Amino acid sequence: MESLPADWVALWDVFDEHRSGALPQVDVGHIMRSLGRRHTEAEFRELLQPLPQPVPFDAFVGLMRQPYNGPTEEDLRIALQAFDVGGTGRLKVGELATLLTTLGEKMAETDVRQILGDVPVDAHGCVSVSELVRFLTAPVAAATPEMAELQRQLAREAPA
């Protein structure tokens, strides 16, 4: 039997409460994000579309074994600096929130508030591009999350 990273198995087990060996695609997406895969929604749809529903564990393992060439810290820094018109290394939180909810793959306002709520903001209402990049690319803890916290997060993400 092959050895798998413990965090893959642990996170799968958190979501697979009934030990059915298969999960809805949305849960597989949550697990992959928790493991640091920062695909866009469109990329997740493309990855998950050919898989059976619900997704069996072995298909999840196959996805995780695929090479991941997501955005690097430098890619993110360059993208954010494009909006730093003054070259100060800082972005106004309000402007950043507007960008995230209106350009490209638009984020929900609640998601933007959650992300920006965890980033240090200075007295002028700005965030450091470097701090923001560090925050957005920080590795996700490999420890098994607490069930109560996962349930709170899922409840926030569930459609109304």
Automatic annotation (TrEMBL):
Organism classification: Eukaryota, Discoba, Euglenozoa, Kinetoplastea, Metakinetoplastina
The keyword Repeat appears for this protein: yes
Protein name: Calmodulin
Record's keyword terms, sorted: Repeat
One Gene Ontology cellular component: myosin II complex
InterPro entries associated with the record: CALM/Myosin/TropC-like, EF-hand-dom_pair, EF_hand_dom
PANTHER family in UniProt: CALMODULIN LIKE 3 (PTHR23048:SF0), MYOSIN LIGHT CHAIN 1, 3 (PTHR23048)
GO molecular function ontology, one term from the record: calcium ion binding
